[in-house]
């Protein structure tokens, strides 16, 4: 691999440090969200279900993906600083990118499965339409996962898996296939997002509350937006021979992390409700304390005042004798 020109070094170094910083932030947010999900379950005395365990697996995969991204950024910085003590460093980077892609595929699949099994827990499968739709979407998600794995494994015709080098070859990453798969990925997320809409509108509750429930499930729209952004950036990233891999890694981590966050946020309502109630109680107690302190000060000042009216007539002493 040729050493990049000096003028491009600062930009690529910034990309590597950006990858490390954003990955750390997303990992912290996802860990906090999953921990909050467990706490919320305990608050409502609900048992952990399949969707919760799938989220735990997704978090473990996110930690693994983050470690891979840190290592990729480290290799890139070493390569840019010309400390090529290991001649196989470019090959290691290529293998690491493949491993990251495989981890990413399993991560988004487990994240989707957690959302689908959450729908199953909330709405059950008693409704025939929902049961059929859930089965079709779940099968499609698993099938897409298998298709992505096959694509990653056989993406280069002349180079088998985990023996990939950076030499030119005929790979699917040089065509529009990754971008097309990215848009299919976003489409599946969007369909999963729409799945509970009909079931929510069939519930016997006021329209405002139904809209609120749809809004909670609609938080997944953030994940769909990130998926679309990742798909649109794939083609431009592959044209960048130096920093393209970092850009793809950054968008992949962001998409997977946001999907995991969106899977946890709807279940954090007990925590938010408890926090709002606590803040309201503290505010009321503070207002009452200030009011009591004000009344006490006014009462203290009034007790020190003695009103004497000198114009009042004096009672003659003879009147006391009749009492």
Tell me the radius of gyration: 32 Å
Q: Count every helix, treating DSSP H or I runs of 4 or more residues as helices.
A: 10
Low-confidence regions: 1-10, 157-169, 302-308, 319-323
Helix and strand content put the structural class at mainly alpha
Q: Report strand %.
A: under 5%
Q: What is the mean pLDDT? A: 75
Largest sheet: none
Secondary-structure element string: HHHHHHHHHH
Shape assignment: globular
- Give the tally of β-strands: 0
Terminal-residue CA separation: 120 Å
Helix content: over 70%
Question: What would you say this structure looks like, in words?
Answer:
Helix 2 packs antiparallel against helix 3. Helices cover 73% and strands 0% of the residues. It is mainly α and 323 residues long. It starts with 8 loop residues before the first helix and ends in a 20-residue tail after the last helix.
């Amino acid at each position: 691999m040729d050493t990049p020109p000096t003028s491009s070094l600062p930009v690529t170094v910034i990309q590597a440090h950006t990858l490390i910083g954003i990955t750390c932030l997303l990992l912290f947010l996802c860990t906090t969200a999953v921990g909050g999900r467990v706490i919320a379950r305990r608050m409502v005395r609900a048992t952990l279900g399949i969707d919760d365990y799938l989220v735990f697996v997704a978090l473990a995969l996110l930690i693994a993906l983050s470690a891979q991204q840190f290592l990729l950024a480290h290799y890139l910085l070493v390569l840019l600083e010309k400390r090529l003590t290991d001649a196989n460093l470019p090959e290691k980077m290529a293998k690491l990118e493949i491993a990251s892609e495989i981890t990413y595929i399993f991560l988004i699949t487990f994240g989707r499965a957690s959302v689908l099994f959450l729908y199953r827990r909330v709405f059950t499968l008693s409704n025939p339409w929902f049961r059929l739709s859930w089965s079709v979407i779940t099968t499609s998600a698993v099938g897409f996962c298998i298709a992505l794995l096959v694509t990653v494994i056989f993406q280069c015709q002349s180079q088998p898996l985990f023996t990939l080098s950076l030499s030119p070859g005929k790979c699917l990453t040089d065509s529009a296939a990754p971008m097309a798969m990215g848009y299919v990925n976003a489409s599946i997320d969007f369909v999963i997002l729409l799945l509970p809409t009909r079931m929510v509108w069939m519930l016997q509750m006021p329209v405002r509350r139904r809209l609120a429930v749809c809004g909670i499930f609609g938080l997944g729209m953030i994940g769909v937006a990130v998926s679309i952004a990742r798909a649109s950036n794939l083609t431009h990233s592959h044209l960048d021979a130096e920093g393209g891999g970092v850009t793809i890694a950054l968008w992949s981590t962001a998409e997977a992390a946001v999907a995991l966050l969106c899977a946890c946020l709807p279940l954090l309502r007990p925590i938010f409700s408890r926090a709002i109630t606590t803040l309201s109680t503290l505010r009321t107690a503070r207002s009452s304390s200030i009011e009591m302190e004000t009344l006490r000060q006014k009462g203290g000042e009034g007790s020190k005042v003695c009103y004497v009216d000198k114009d009042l007539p004096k009672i003659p002493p003879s009147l006391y004798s009749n009492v």
